[in-house]
Amino acid sequence: MIINRVWAMPNKWTFKIKPIKKLLEKYKVGKGWIDPFAGMYSPAEIRNDHLDKCNSEYHMDAVDFVRQLDNHYKGCLFDPPYSIHEVKRHYDSIGMKYDFKNDPTCGFKKVRDILSTKVNMCISFGWNSVGLGKNRGFEIIEILLVSHGGNRNDTICTVERKIQKRLEG
Q1: In Å, how far from its chain's centre is CA 149?
Q2: What is the CATH number of the domain that holds 75?
C-alpha cells in the first residue's frame, strides 16, 4: 500500500485541490467512472448531485442514483459530506427533515453496498479511510493524506480496487 502526505490549500470543491486533482489523473478518472455526490467539478463521466445547481447529469438522491445504474463501471468517486453536521446542514438547505437519531444517510452504507457491486475501483474522500472496505471485496492500494494546516482536518483520499465478491459476515 502506498501512503503519501502532502500539504495543499483547502477548497470546498474537493477535486479543485491540486494533489487530489493529480491523484485522479494518475488513476485516469473520467470515461467509465461514476460519482453519486458530484458537486461542481467532478471529472467522472456519469455524475449525480441532488442539488440542481451542481454540474451533473442527474439530480437524485445518491441511493436512487446508484440503484438505477445498470452497467458495470471502471470506478467511482465517493465524496459525500464528511460529517453528520455537514449532512444536516446540506439536508436542511434543501428542505429535507434531518435528525441525528434517524440519520437518513446511515453513513451512506446503502450507497456503498450498491456501488461495491458495480465498480472495479473506488476513490473515497473524507476524514477517515474506510472506503468501500474489505467486507465488500475491496483492498486499499493507496492513501493520500492532504494536510490543510492549522486546526483543519486533513482530507483523506483512499484508493481501492475490487479483489473479490462481497464477503458475507
Answers
A1: 22
A2: 3.40.50.150
- Asked if residue 14 belongs to a domain, the reply is yes
Domain count for the chain: 1
Residues 6 or more apart whose Cβ sits within 8 Å of residue 108: 62, 78, 80
Q: Is residue 89 part of a domain?
A: yes
What does pTM read for this prediction? 0.90
Query: Alpha-carbon distance 40 to 12, whole Å?
Result: 10
- 99 alpha-carbon distance from chain centroid: 22
- 160 and 2 Cβ atoms separated by less than 8 Å: no
- Domain membership flag for residue 169: no
Q: What confidence tens digit (pLDDT) does each residue in 64-112 have?
A: 999 999 989 999 999 998 877 777 776 777 676 665 555 555 668 889 9
Q: How many CB atoms lie within 10 A of CB 25?
A: 11
* Domain presence at residue 167: no
Residue 66's identity, in one-letter code, is V
Q: Which residue range(s) make up the domain with 100? A: 2-162
- Strand 75-78 to 33-35 pairing: parallel
Q: How far apart are CA 45 and CA 130, in angstroms?
A: 24
Contacts of 159 (CB under 8 A, 6+ apart): 23, 27, 121, 122, 123, 140, 141, 142, 143, 144
